[in-house]
């Protein structure tokens, strides 16, 4: 047990700042849309998803921004009135319900985008993403070892999230109590985040656990050059997948690639869904579809991990749970390290000197 305590303390001390950054940034990102509603009055109004209304708006955004390197459009909805254009250079733009540009910025040029990059990539691209994943895996081990360490002293547990005093023993008690209270939410949030980074091993494990055969990667059909009729795309999507909500509109990403519309069906948890309609801009006829509800058991479970991590389900109660979990993770990391660094040094026993 002493060895486990020492390993837990040192690992926590080394990783505390990184875990605190991930926890705090994740907690703030939960309320990104609320922040945008305060900044942009247009975000407080919903938009119509009818093909004849939404289609021309997507077409206008596509026509005006494709030359700027448009990658995809994150579409507004009945409860949030901002479209977001995402560009290949990392920049973006917010547009109102008619497609008018409200704000345009370069990479990390807005606070919510900077915070997203910090949380997902630690502002260091793919390398930062891998480091964040390692920190998530370490946080899982810290949580589990912490529960093992405090198990013998659970009789002293109290529903307390704030220490009685600033004394070291009270800070340690608060660290124990806070860790026990938020153990399950922390494990859920951290594991789902870890799964987003290291999706390959997680998917392989889910395939084994659910006895699912790995699904082949979806094939994007070839298409010709032309102007995409987004009204027609939305109409086809509504016919093929009734009740599905359009979420992402993507112009052809390369020569010969189709345009695509990503949808969320009512039974899908993922905020953007995993359902696709592919269209040929040359003929504006569908070239293929991908039904998110026909995925394997393993893929359906994996697709549910992202909304669990990003508070995409559960409404305001889950938003608050995610907020408090992120704050708890931050406090556990920083306060635990503080108490570790304040650990009193043992005084060396003075040897008695006896006279001959």
Automatic annotation (TrEMBL):
Taxonomic path: Bacteria, Pseudomonadati, Pseudomonadota, Alphaproteobacteria, Hyphomonadales
Coiled coil location: none
Transmembrane segments: 7-31, 130-157, 178-198, 320-341
A Pfam family annotated for this UniProt entry: PepSY_TM
Annotated keywords: Membrane, Transmembrane, Transmembrane helix
Entry protein name: PepSY-associated TM helix domain-containing protein
Organism name: Hyphomonas hirschiana VP5
InterPro entries tied to this protein: PepSY-ass_TM
């Amino acid at each position: 047990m002493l060895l486990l305590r020492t390993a837990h303390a040192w690992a926590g001390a080394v990783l505390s700042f990184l875990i605190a950054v991930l926890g705090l940034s994740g907690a703030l990102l939960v309320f990104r849309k609320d922040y945008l509603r305060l900044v942009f009055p247009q975000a407080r109004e919903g938009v119509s998803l009818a093909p004849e209304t939404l289609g021309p708006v997507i077409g206008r955004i596509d026509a005006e921004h494709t030359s700027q390197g448009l990658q995809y459009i994150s579409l507004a909805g009945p409860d949030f009135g901002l479209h977001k254009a995402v560009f290949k250079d990392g920049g973006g733009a917010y547009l109102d319900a008619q497609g008018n540009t409200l704000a345009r910025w370069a990479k990390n040029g807005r606070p919510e985008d900077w915070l997203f990059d910090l949380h997902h990539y630690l502002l260091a691209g793919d390398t930062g993403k891998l480091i964040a994943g390692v920190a998530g895996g370490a946080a899982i081990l810290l949580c589990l070892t912490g529960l093992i360490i405090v198990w013998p002293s659970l009789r002293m547990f109290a529903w307390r999230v704030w220490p009685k005093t600033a004394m070291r023993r009270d800070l340690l008690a608060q660290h124990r109590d806070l860790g026990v209270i938020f153990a399950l939410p922390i494990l859920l949030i951290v594991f789902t985040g870890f799964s987003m980074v290291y999706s390959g091993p997680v998917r392989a494990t889910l395939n084994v656990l659910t006895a699912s055969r790995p699904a082949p990667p979806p094939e994007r059909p070839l298409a010709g050059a032309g102007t995409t009729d987004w009204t027609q795309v939305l109409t086809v999507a509504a016919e093929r997948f009734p009740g599905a909500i359009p979420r992402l509109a993507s112009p052809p990403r390369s020569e010969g690639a189709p345009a695509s519309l990503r949808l969320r069906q009512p039974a899908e948890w993922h905020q953007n869904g995993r359902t696709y309609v592919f269209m040929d801009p040359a003929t504006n006829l569908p070239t293929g579809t991908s039904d998110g509800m026909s995925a394997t058991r393993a893929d359906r479970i994996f697709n549910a991990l992202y909304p669990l991590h990003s508070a995409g389900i559960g409404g305001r109660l889950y938003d608050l749970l995610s907020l408090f979990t992120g704050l708890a993770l931050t406090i556990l990391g920083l306060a635990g390290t503080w108490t570790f660094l304040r650990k009193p040094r043992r005084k060396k026993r003075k040897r008695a000197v006896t006279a001959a």
